[in-house]
Design brief:
Its EC number is 2.5.1.141. The chain has 312 residues and is mostly helical. The protein has helices spanning 21-27, 30-45, 53-77, 79-82, 100-121, 124-148, 152-161, 163-172, 177-200, 202-208, 213-216, 219-242, 248-270, 274-311.
Length: 312
């Protein structure tokens, strides 16, 4: 038999994309993970006696891995939705670089590692809260609420709001009013933040069959809900100062930024047609990111300066 009989016609062999490390990293939803780490750090620093730096670092790493596990499991379950939405169709699974089974296994392994590590290096209350956070995001939000109700992001927002409580529990071994206040800020911030995006991406959500508020109740009702939540958020954002957990500097910044947030929500409510409406929603969406980052940054900086002064 000649060697020619073993020749493969390359043109007939399908190209199979090979997953790169960056694809597994993308499963972790790194932008969401960075927010989780940052807010968990704020909660950890709010504890009366912060833990040893090594324990604090290990705890934050475990929380970060838990957040990444949630992202991977979310992409595993939502692969069908991601495939038809413009902003998500290049993710590793719909793009064909990873299989759903690989994402599921990856997410489950990371979740187990994160929960076990946090329990061993910190305490099992924090580990239990982390496990509940992952469960709530993947099962309650992703599998149930997201596809069944326009209030998905309202109730589901609890998952994204829990990291400060996990961080506080990792440091103190208990929950507290201060960590619940941080939870409340994120919980109330979540609906106007995501509904502003939903106003811009309503066609995407419509194609995917996700019942976001603009697709179910209409854009005008969505703008009203955004305004209501924004007006509630403004005083809640000031609560850390009002209750004595933050300095007057934080109080001034939270009042000013809360007023800007409310003003942008009012503009979004009033501008309902054409490019002006899109511009208003876009400005609110991007400012909402800055708002949350700024408030938690001030809290983190204040607590770090306080600890430095105590150590000296």
């Amino acid at each position: 038999m000649s060697d020619a009989s073993f020749t493969v016609n390359d043109s007939r062999v399908p190209h199979i994309p090979v997953a790169a490390p960056s694809d597994y990293f993308a499963l972790l939803k790194p932008r969401v993970m960075s927010l989780v780490i940052f807010t968990a750090l704020a909660g950890l620093l709010m504890a009366p006696v912060p833990p040893h730096p090594v324990i604090a670092f290990a705890s934050l790493l475990a929380i970060a891995v838990g957040a990444g596990a949630s992202g991977a499991l979310n992409m595993w379950y939502d692969a069908d939705i991601d495939a038809v939405m413009t902003r998500t169709r290049t993710r590793p699974i719909p793009a064909g670089r990873l299989t759903r089974e690989e994402a599921l296994a990856f997410g489950l392994v990371l979740a187990s590692m994160a929960i076990t590590t946090l329990g061993l290096v910190a305490n099992w209350l924090a580990a239990g809260l982390l496990a509940f956070t992952i469960f709530f995001y993947v099962v309650i939000y992703t599998m149930w609420l997201k596809r069944s109700t326009p209030m998905n992001i309202v109730i589901g927002g609890a998952a994204g709001a829990l990291p400060p409580m996990v961080g506080f529990a990792a440091a103190a071994g208990e929950a507290s009013l201060s960590s619940f206040i941080l939870f409340s800020i994120i919980f109330i911030w979540t609906p106007p933040h995501f509904w502003a995006l939903a106003l811009l991406k309503s066609e995407d959500y419509g194609r995917a069959g996700v019942p976001m508020l603009p697709n179910v109740a209409g854009p005008d009702r969505t703008r009203l809900e955004i305004l209501i939540y924004s007006l509630i958020l403004a005083p809640v954002g000031v609560a850390p100062y009002a209750l004595g957990y933050a300095s007057p500097a934080y109080g001034a910044i939270s009042v000013a930024f809360g007023a800007v947030f409310a003003a942008l929500a009012i503009t979004t409510y009033r501008r309902r047609e054409g490019e002006a409406a899109k511009k208003a929603a876009r400005r609110l969406f991007f400012f909402s990111i800055f708002y949350l980052f700024a408030l938690f940054l001030v809290l983190v900086v204040e607590r770090v300066l306080h600890l430095a002064a105590v150590i000296q």
